[in-house]
Amino acid sequence: MVIFKGTEDISHYLTTQRRLGYNVGFVPTMGALHDGHISLIINAIKICDTVVCSIFVNPTQFNNPEDFQKYPSTLEADIKLLTQAGTDVLFLPDVAEIYPEGTSSLPHYQLDNLEMILEGRSRPGHFQGVCQVMHRLLETVGPCRLFMGLKDYQQCMVVDWLIKDKSLPVQLETLPTFREKSGLAMSSRNMRLDNEQLVLASSIYECLVDLKERLAPGSLISLKNSGVAFLASKGFEVDYVEIADAETLEIENEWNGRKPLVFLIAAFLGNVRLIDNLVMNRGSEGT
Ligand code: AMP
Q1: What is the reported pTM?
Q2: Any ligand 1 atom below 6 A from CB of 148
Q3: Residue 270's domain spans which residues?
Q4: Same domain, residue pair 125 and 197
Q5: Which numbered atom of ligand 1 lies nearest the CA of 151?
């Protein structure tokens, strides 16, 4: 695996790869890698000639400074996992490489309602940061395919919007959420949970499955409220338990029995914020 720290160096290398006829696949991450990240790499290797992974903890997408400071870093183990998986290139930029002119006057992206709801509403500015870093990374790496996890459902929609809005020549491939045996969605933030919290954390998936099983046409309000009550009874501080249109993410309070929906949860265990979702009517995708 070749490691680059500079944007010009990696750009130059990948331009040569493309000229040789290799198609480039890209898996952006913030490190502290787990099997969920590696599943993206493995899928990328199946269909791309040159697979690039980036590790960059992007300061502009953290609305909470403590979350940024405490974000786990396990670089040595990450390099080992990526090498074992067969990754071709690791991009390890620092903040000055990604934002050479600083972070105070970065572009604004017209996300409209997409950043007013759910994660956007709870984490003001988060999706602006996601667009800023993804725009810069996509222009630097120039992949033909981009691999992202449906674990971050709204983020996939934001990046899809960015690709279309900026006419970027890349195809977004979204992949299912990788889970522990308990159902808990793998996440770098799980490293910050103690053993007792790790057991409790699987209640989020339990709640999603229960909501999906009890879904019936008509009002969705009491279903959502029961999800909030269940998680609160397990010791979570619930941010939201929501049900939304799976295509538009519009929040739904009534269901006609046909529209594909997504169930979404964000909740704190101690000071660790966890998110997860479950999509219905899309086969195994997003489960
Ligand atoms: P992160 O390092 O958390 O920014 O995640 C990097 C990429 O890995 C994003 O596209 C995430 O959606 C994806 N990802 C994170 N956790 C999982 C998981 N449990 N299963 C599949 N993909 C994931």
Answers
A1: 0.96
A2: yes
A3: 188-279
A4: no
A5: 12
